[in-house]
Design goal:
The structure is a single chain. This protein is an alpha+beta fold. It has seven helices and 15 strands. It has helices at 90-100, 107-122, 132-145, 190-193, 197-204, 206-223, 244-253; strands at residues 2-3, 8-15, 28-36, 42-46, 51-53, 64-68, 81-86, 150-151, 154-155, 161-164, 170-172, 185-186, 188-189, 229-231, 234-235. The strands form five sheets. The protein has a four-stranded antiparallel β-sheet. Strands 5-4-6 form a three-stranded antiparallel β-sheet, with no helix packed on it. It has a three-stranded antiparallel β-sheet with strand order 9-10-11. A hairpin with a 4-residue loop joins strand 4 (42-46) and strand 5 (51-53). Helix 5 (197-204) packs across helix 6 (206-223). It is globular and about 60 Å long.
């Protein structure tokens, strides 16, 4: 759907790849809400048959939409688009977006926050010695170690945190015992990480490890089994054994 009054485009897509295609729905349905900083000069939708100018809605398989913003003579302002996503609904995607990026914030504002956040994240470790290239390799690896698991927590009513569970129901995420917020995480390539990334995070980011372990427990409670290779809100069952038990045990032993 193209909302010309709000300068927004929203809808959903279904990802059905090698793993995502194993979802109960035949793929992972992801809702999105995209907000633009400029007025649309032109717009339309398309399907497998034709392009439909000045049309605001399309449904079906292999459909999409387009917007344009006029030529340089009309404006030299850069086009910026801010996108919120959700596993729950389009309205939830908009709520997530508004909570993360307020109307009026710019790309530079978001960049500044992201830069500060990553600087603080990588500051969990400090290394000395070696060459500059060695240190670049170290911090690049540390950065990669923080790219997963994926946070699936969404913004609930009155500042609560919610998530779509393995039972396909929306749940409220309870805070930690000290009142600090938790994150619900997924996309757990457990067979690959139980002897590499997971032990590292348990040392340098025990908070992330806590979120990981608590999320696996919730997956067990709502899905009926401890996860092997969790993706979004379902189990892919693409690995053998129960390596998640090793991650949980390691976390418990490290306190």
């Amino acid at each position: 759907t193209i909302d010309t009054a709000a300068n927004a485009v929203y809808g959903f897509i279904k990802n059905a790849g090698g793993l995502s295609g194993r979802a109960p729905a035949g793929g992972i349905v992801t809702f999105f809400y995209a907000r633009f900083n400029r007025t649309f000069a032109d717009f339309g939708v398309w399907n497998q048959i034709a392009v439909q100018p000045l049309t605001t809605f399309a449904a079906g398989t292999d459909v999409g939409g387009y917007v344009s913003f006029g030529g340089p003579s009309q404006s030299t302002e850069a086009v910026e688009v801010y996108v919120g996503i959700s596993l729950i609904s389009i309205a939830q995607a908009q709520t997530n977006l508004d909570a993360a990026i307020a109307v009026g914030e710019t790309f530079d504002d978001v960049l500044a926050v992201a830069t500060e956040t990553w600087a603080a994240t990588l500051a969990v470790a400090s290394v000395q010695g070696g060459t500059q290239q060695d240190q670049i390799r170290f911090y690049t690896a540390l950065y990669h170690a923080h790219l997963a698991p994926t946070q699936y927590t969404e913004v609930g009513p009155d500042g609560t945190q919610i998530y779509l569970g393995f039972d396909n129901e929306v749940h409220t995420l309870q805070p930690n015992a000290d009142g600090s917020p938790r994150e619900y995480v997924s996309d757990l390539s457990i067979w690959d990480i139980y002897r590499t990334q997971a032990p590292l995070l348990s040392l340098v980011r025990p908070d992330v490890t806590g979120d990981l372990v608590n999320s696996m427990v919730l997956m067990f409670e709502q899905g009926g089994n401890i996860p092997k290779w969790a993706l979004a809100n379902f189990e892919t069952n693409c690995m053998t054994a129960q390596h998640s038990a090793l991650i949980i045990t390691d976390a418990v032993l490290k306190g």
